[in-house]
Design brief:
There is one protein chain. The chain is of the alpha/beta class and about 625 residues long. It is built from 21 helices and 26 strands. It has a 9-stranded mixed sheet with strand order 14-15-16-13-9-12-11-10-17. Strands 18, 19, 20, 21, 22, 23, 24, 25 and 26 form a 9-stranded mixed sheet that branches. It has an 8-stranded parallel barrel with strand order 1-2-3-4-5-6-7-8, surrounded by 7 helices. α11 runs parallel beside α16 and α19 packs antiparallel against α20.
Length: about 625
Amino acid sequence: MKTSIATVTLSGELDAKLRAIAAAGFHGVEIFENDLLAFDRTPREVGQMVHDQGLEITLFQPFRDFEGMPEPHRSRTFERAKRKFNVMQELGAELVLVCSNVSPISIGGLDRAAADFHQLGELAAEMGVRVGYEALAWGRHINDHRDAWEIVRRADHPNVGLILDSFHTLARKIDVNSIRSIPKEKIFIVQLADAPLFNMDLLYWSRHFRNMPGEGDLDVSGFTRAVAATGYDGYISLEIFNDQFRGGSTRTIATDGHRSLMHLVDQVRRAEPDIRLSMPAIPPPQDVHRIAFIEFAADAAESGALVDMLRTLGFRRTARHKSKQVDLYTLGDIRLVINTEEQGFAGAAFRLHGALAYAFGLEVGNAEEAMARAVALGSAPFVQPVADDEATVPAVQGPDGGIYYFLDHSLPLSDLWQREFETVEEDPEVVSTGLEQIDHIAQTVRYEDLLTMVLFYNSLFQVSKSPVVDIIDPSGIVRSQVVANASGTFRVTLNGAENRRTLAGHFLAESFGAAVQHVAFATKDIFATAENLARNGFRPLEINRNYYDDVEARFGLDPDFAERLRAANILYDRDEHGEYFQLYSPLYGEGFFFEVVERRGYQGYGAPNAIFRIAAQKRRIRPEGMPSR
């Protein structure tokens, strides 16, 4: 299979779209007619531009309201088709998409439509082009690929074939296995799109909410497996109508598209190994055994406040890098690294974002395979100079700009801390607080980048994604989605900020796009942890009394237990699996913070508490005397 993408998927002018499509690694491009008409170049010049980028025009689209028209409209459709074919000849496009008729004056009937397509096939053959018929999910008479295939079969013309689109099939919940019996040579191209599950008008859903395979909730993998089972090995192409994409980065969306297709083909290959696919195999997605470390960039001055906060949380400095200004702080199974190097990526990250987390170490089964998969899916390798006695840790730069290191149990990665760090003995007065491991990390991104990050994680690792949840901030809404593995050793909450008045938006604006907003640590006894935190001088985020009165009534808590929560500023939630406890640090810088959690079977992340936590945090950052809005 080869990869293609429709120009309608991307924002920008046609020439910028073509450059981004080629740079992302696509083989071909669908030219959407409006993009051609709005561009100040002739079809012949556009065709040359496509060729110069090393691309092939896979499809020219769309041609609307063709089959089943009464006279004199029927004659006019063939005149329109001839004009369209002339443009295609200049453009160098060999295939046109004809979508099923939606006109209220069209007449139904499979034989009538088949006769129209046979005649159109004759015209197409004369002009050296082919015609592909697609069933729109909202077509007036034809809205099912099975009926479209029957029309193509009855038309019985070599220049007339079928175009399959995953959205139109899956949105109407049509059995994808019906595709398996279609002859592969009659499938002219396959278009793919995912979408979140919404109960809304099909046309509106399609025109505004499609997204990349793997970003939504439709079974695009099952659809593609059915197509591959026919022996089809032609172009798979993305046709995505999405308001967010139209306003996003052309290059980012193109990269996401190519990543989604590579990941999809890999899913098909692993689900049905007997199916032969021409695209190269890539290493499997890795399970993340744990977050091995989180690295902060800082300078000598700003690291002081961060170190003070870590000490109140119970962390001790236990090692220092032998040749760099890099310190290791540990507690339980948690490793936090503070990098105060002025040179290199850490120094640049600090100058741009301030003192914030910028890198993760992820322990996986095979670090080299994780790296190879990430690069194959479009991630940029991250390399910076190391000394002769230092290990080169496989790493990539993520779409958020952060660095993702991959570690495993092989040498020299497994003894990295012993070989490159020297043990130090400090902070004997720090009380251990019972924090055991990293429960989850929370990354804040622009709302338009939320799907990009979901796809990044979903394609690289063995994770699943949650439905989108609305987090209520007193100043707006933040969209939140979780990616996590089955064992719970790797959880990431992704928060998409839409305006800077929200706490998440303020954090993004003030740190110039830094992504990691908080880190949550797990304990087995949050009340004991709270007592030991207090011994270290930790001052928790203060939650107002009204919250606890409501929690007591809402969950039917014992008044003494509710008072115990209030005294420690611990938030509480419960679901069908169990209970959840949360304790927050004060804000550091422009919105970064730590969280302590205890899970008693609970599966979520305390979303109902977010509005109260955010309100308390915003009270802390509001200047004295400044009114709330």
